[in-house]
Amino acid sequence: MQIDLEKERLEILKRYRKLLRTAKPFLKDDDAKQIKKAFLISAEAHKEMRRKSGEPYIYHPLAVAQICVEEIGLGTTSIIAALMHDVVEDTDTTLADIEKQFNPKIASIIDGLTKIAGTFEYGTSQQAENFRKMLLTLSDDIRVILIKLADRLHNMRTLTSMAKEKQLKIASETIYLYAPLAHRLGLNAIKSELEDLGLKHTEPVAYKEIADKLTENKRSRESFVENFIKPIKKTLDERGLNYTIKGRPKSIFSIYNKIKKGNTPFEKIYDLFAVRVVLDVPVEREKSDCWEVYSVVTDHYRPNPSRLKDWVSTPKSNGYESLHTTVMSMPFAHDKEGRWVEVQIRSKRMDEIAEKGVAAHFKYKGTDTRTSKAFESWLSQVREAIEANDKSQSAVELVEDIKNSLYHEEVFVFSPKGKLIVLQSGATALDFAFEIHSEVGARCIGAKVGGKLVPLSHKLQNGDQIEILTSSKQKPSEDWLRIVYTTKAKARIKDFIKEENKSHIIKGRDLIEHRLKHLGYPLLTLEITNQLRAYFNAKDANDLFYRFGKTYINIDQLKHWKLDRELHERKQAEKSIQAPIVDSKSFRKEMQQYHKERKESDTLLIGEDMDKVDYTLAKCCNPISGDEVFGFVTINEGIKIHRAACPNSPELLSRHGDRVIKAQWTSQIAMSFVVDLVIRGIDRVGLVNDVTRLISEKLQVNITGLNIGVKDGLFEGQISLMVQDTDHLDSLSAEMEQVPGVIEVERKVS
Questions:
Q1: How confident is the model at residue 164 (pLDDT cuts 50, 70, 90)?
Q2: First-to-final CA distance of the chain
Q3: Where is the TGS domain (predicted)?
Q4: What is the pLDDT of residues 69-90, one digit of tens each?
């Protein structure tokens, strides 16, 4: 391909100048010079590099900086860090060089953005380690996460140039970690786009189907919105309010979730959009004017009382403020009946915070601190979880703990003195106790809600007033981790348990050493410790010692270990084979050797490589020929082949992406697969007989299982068939849907 270097140079300058124009309103002193210096360093560092699309690499840092300014609202420090966020990782430039040319703050942010190099222990994943590093930097500067989200957004926007398996891995990781994080930081627009782009690459057929249908009914939707808002606009104009009003379609991802969770067809989803009223009013009039608009809307349309959400009086912990109501519209135009419509009412300030999140929230911090208190409360919980985290907890566990707090709604409860406490929805009385104080939580034996005694596991409801009961004899136990919901409570419980566990670990080690001496092993070596850990299925040495110290494992079990060890050694000697113990180090070596022998461009051919590679088809999703698949290297069971649409794929791809390999079906060998289909419809006499005759006689397909249930005139069942590939399956499904009474045939995923 012929590259026009002069044309590219002009394009780079054009994008750089656009960045400066966007940032100009808040630039001070020598900010422009500092941005120029960062741009020149980045351009020089990446001058020989190109993206997978073939474009100059410098396009990427420029785009990330543009997103930081235009879509998040960040300033000069973030622009400089965004421009150089890949410089340390990709070139010989060091953090010390950056600190010398700029300042320690920029170097610290770039350090947080730089990926971790090297190998990781079994039980962790590189993505989780990277995420932990970002969260550690979050304790000092939240801009690390905001720039990382801008980086991820641009990567998602340009993902089509990547290899298919890379698209799948990055998109799954985005839905699993980054979209929830954007939600928690209040970046609603970025959250929605990340989810939509993630769905586009993980479920392309479903994404295109919804997108096409949204395009098809766009005109009728716009007509409906126009009719709906007409009477509202008339009244608002009469009252002299300064406002904008428009209909906004819901994201494709949220529509997809409604279809999937509610098993509802697209045509039956009526809340495909929301009407938003944005008021241009001073801060002191925001609340009263929002309620005035609510009054106008409900004067024209009947509201659903159970769907009123007042986040104006009590903002969400991510800073979100808005008044939501759902009202029943009148029939318009071609509509034969009314439909439910969500109406969102907010001020311009609230709208900017809703779209640009925490960055806008800090911009308005001087005028209103309600949102800052809620957000800082969540941020402090993240910091506490990180501080409580140690090497005994994997990065995956830390990410899971924090991820649990990202998407949950809040519950609003009160202390006995009437203080409002905001917790995650699903929080228990024990969570509340730890929110009050760590010692209160540690000594908690129960609680009273509205004067009535409740257990520690009691789930809190909005408006509950809680009194905590304590005892000096109480102490936390591991069972408490199954009761609590919040990151803070989990971190505190783990702290208490960790202190108590130290004595059990010391006791367990002493017991093992003493007994081993009697069994003829004078020293507890690392080799023996690893053998014991593997034999008793312990996570690590401390876990092994702890379980003996707590007498979960009887010390006499060491006799059985010795006998089994000696038997194993005799068998190995007979076979003249020395097999290494599978530990984290040998597993890493095995993985490295595997990747060395099989180049990145190689693909596992399912059906041809069985004699070369140990692989099996995953039972969780039952892939068949024609499905989009990937290989996942397990610890003890070789390679498992999973469908891209497997329920477990987001977790596997996002948490253990370094163990994912390319795989595809070969067309050289004929294979048969068992596939489970869910069949639904209206019951009638002879229906099952018609279906089975069609499959067995006309289509000549073997039925391996059949289970049909009938309720209230409707039937639903499962049928297991032998098929050759996805094309064969599609034709079978289409034929079955032609049987009178059959409404739907779909593939089942476990």
A1: confident
A2: 46
A3: 409-470
A4: 998 888 899 999 999 988 888 7
User: Residue 83 CA to chain centroid, in angstroms?
Assistant: 26
Q: Which residues of 311-326 are buried (b: 16+ CB within 10 A; e: fewer)?
A: bbeebbbbbbbbbbbb
DSSP assignment string, 381-410: HHHHHHHH--TTS-HHHHHHHHHTTTSPPE
Which of the following is catalytic: 44, 89, 226, 376? 89
Give the list of residues 6+ apart from residue 450 with CB closer than 8 angstroms, or none.
Answer: 464, 465
Residue count of the chain: 750
Contacting residues for 556 by C-beta, under 8 A, at least 6 apart: none
Check: CB of residue 81 under 8 Å from CB of residue 106: yes
Active site residue 712: no
User: Rounded to whole angstroms, how far apart are CA atoms 724 and 260?
Assistant: 27
The encoded tokens of residue 84 equal 């150089």
Q: How many C-beta atoms lie closer than 10 Å to residue 303's C-beta?
A: 15
Task: Indicate left, alpha or beta for 607 from its phi (over 0: left) and psi (-120 to 50: alpha).
Answer: left
- Which is the catalytic residue, given 90, 590, 683, 744? 90
Amino acid at 82: A
Structure-token match 């997108």, residue found: 211
List 586's β-bridge partners, or say none.
none
Q: What pLDDT digit, counting tens, does each position of 384-427 carry?
A: 665 555 544 555 555 565 655 555 567 888 888 888 788 888 89
Residue 90 known to be catalytic: yes
What's the pTM value of the predicted model, to 2 decimals? Answer: 0.63
The DSSP string of 441-462 is HHTEEEEEETTEEE-TTPBP-T
